[in-house]
Design a protein that fits this description.
Length: about 160
């Protein structure tokens, strides 16, 4: 599999130039960064949350960080929980299970992104499979994110002891 049609069509309609980077199969965004030989702090991942009314929110954050669900709940003024794997598979039907591309709009989902993502001139995003990253320059990420709110969404990455 490569980039899902939903993601490809979305980027094309937005006139966003991008490159793809193929890598060995991985099970996480951090593993994707390592396999693609991309610095981990430049890779973004999606975490999907939902409220009690099943309104979904995609939080986009650096791959090495963990979403601070309490912080996001305060920002959105709603009580959030993680979407289940079954819910994700139903919403991202054209993606491989467990490979959620950090593009909420084409999947009819509100987005909140972490401000750390704009610190690097390059951003790499999971494509929707376990073997491809999408490379965007910062300005193009900002262009597709300009109408979406952003804030500090993360807990610090775990420290190795």
């Amino acid at each position: 599999m490569s980039i899902p049609n939903t993601v490809h069509d979305y980027l094309s309609k937005q006139n966003i130039p991008f490159q793809t980077i193929r890598h060995q199969p991985s099970k996480s965004s951090v593993q994707s960064a390592i396999a693609a030989q991309v610095p981990i702090h430049k890779v973004a991942k999606a975490v999907v949350l939902k409220d009690a009314l099943d309104h979904y929110l995609m939080a986009i954050l650096p791959a090495a960080n963990r979403v601070n669900i309490h912080q996001v709940s305060q920002i959105t003024n709603s009580r959030l929980q993680f979407a289940t794997e079954h819910e994700l598979n139903c919403r991202f039907k054209d993606c491989e299970p467990g490979a959620i591309p950090p593009f909420g709009e084409p999947y009819n989902m509100n987005v909140l992104w972490d401000t750390r993502l704009c610190k690097s001139p390059d951003i790499f995003l999971e494509a929707g499979d376990h073997e491809t990253l999408i490379h965007l320059v910062r300005e193009n990420f900002q262009q597709i994110s300009k109408n979406q709110p952003h804030d500090d969404l993360c807990s610090a990455p775990p420290r190795d002891h």
